[in-house]
Design brief:
By secondary structure, the protein is α+β, with helices and mostly antiparallel strands. It is 27% helix and 27% strand. Strands 2-3-1-4-5 form a 5-stranded antiparallel beta sheet, covered by helices on one side. The longest helix has 19 residues. The protein starts with 22 loop residues before the first strand and ends in an 8-residue tail after the last strand.
Length: 168
Amino acid sequence: MEFSHFDNEGNAIMVDVSGKDVTLREAVAEGTIRMSNECFEMVRTGGMKKGDVLGVARIAGIMGAKRTSELVPLCHILNLTKAAVDFELLPAAGQDGLPGIRAVCTVRCSGKTGVEMEALTGVSVALLTIYDMCKAADRSMEMGDIHLVRKSGGKSGLFIREDHKDGD
């Protein structure tokens, strides 16, 4: 397999996408954060002192997706037409039974390159924001399982992660 982010001399480069077709591209990524029961209940009931944790995390995730090219050095600047972050409360997640929150970021654009990095960045920033807003209640929170669920568009077409092919 050849890596496209290196030139013939091994120098890191930004991939030239000028010859690619503009297509509708979409990516969905997700990740989770696990926390203590007490912290989970504070988030669920709106009892966190810093305010609406999931509302702020949603905006932060959208902002993260929009600013991906500023954070990941070789990413293209994209004109996103959609960036959304949704949450699912998981009352008993993980092997240790701790509750958690699943964040799902969906990003779309019409462009010459995909939006996978934007979706992954959006999820990561949303989870980091939850941690930041809740750390006074639980510093042992754990973020993880951040991954691309699905992507469509472009030359490579549709990708659906194997463990999500049942529609989950």
